[in-house]
Amino acid sequence: MDYLLVLLPKIQNLGVWIYWIILLVSLLESLAFVGLFVPGTTALIFAGFMASQGIIDIGDLIWFAAIGGVLGDAASFYIGKHSAERIKTSRLFKPEYEAKGEAFFHRYGDFSVILARFVGPLRPVVPFVAGMVKMRYKKFLVFNIIGAFAAATAYLLIGYFFGEAWGRVGPIIEHAKVGLLILAGAGLVGYIFKKKLFKQ
C-alpha cells in the first residue's frame, strides 16, 4: 500500500484529466473485443480509492465512468449490427468469446446487457452480439444506461470503501507489523540461545 500512497500525489497533478482518463478507459473496456485487453475494472476500483483520499470526487467519477461505458457499449452495438463480418477478420476477434457471448445473450435475453457488465470477458462482447442479432436499439440503450451506471457505481464504491477502511485499519496494521518483527526477533534470539545452550 505504501507505493500507492507515494503514487497518489503524482496522479493528483493530472487534475480534471483524471475524469477524462476514466471515461476513456471505461469506453475502451466496453469496446467490442478491444475491451478484452483493457483492465477497466482495476482502473475503476483504483479511482474509487483515489476518491476516498480526497483527490477526486466520487459523484463526478460515477458520471464519467458511466458515460464512457454507455459510449463503449453503443459503439460495440453499432459494430455488431453493421460491421460484424469485417471485425471477424481482425486479429482482435476471439471466436470463443463470441460463442460465449451468444450463449450468454440467448440465456439471459435483454438483461444480458446489464449482467455482462459484471462478467469481465463478456463485457465487451455481449453488446456486439446484441447488435449482431438486431436487438432494438431503443431497448438496448435503456439496458445499456442502467448497466453502465450500476457497474460504475459498484466498482468505484468498492475502491472507495476499501480506501475508507484502510484509513482506519492501516495504522493498526503498521503497529502490528512492528509487533510481529519484535516477536520474530525475540524468537530468533531465543532459538540461537537455545542451540548454543544445548551444544554446551
Structural write-up:
With 200 residues, the chain is mainly alpha-helical. It has one domain (2-170). It contains nine helices and no strands. The chain has helices at 2-12, 17-30, 40-52, 58-82, 84-87, 95-108, 112-115, 126-132, 137-199. Helix 4 runs parallel beside helix 8 (126-132) and helix 4 packs across helix 9. The longest helix has 63 residues, at 137-199. The two termini are 46 Å apart.
**Helix amount:** over 70%
Number of helices: 9
The counted number of beta strands is 0
Give the overall shape.
elongated
pLDDT average, as an integer? 79
Low-confidence stretches: 172-180
Cα distance spanning the termini: 46 Å
Key features of this structure:
200 residues; mainly alpha; 9 helices; 78% helix; 0% strand; elongated
Give the helix/strand layout.
Blueprint: H1 2-12, H2 17-30, H3 40-52, H4 58-82, H5 84-87, H6 95-108, H7 112-115, H8 126-132, H9 137-199
Helix pairs in contact: 2-3, 2-4, 3-9, 4-8, 4-9
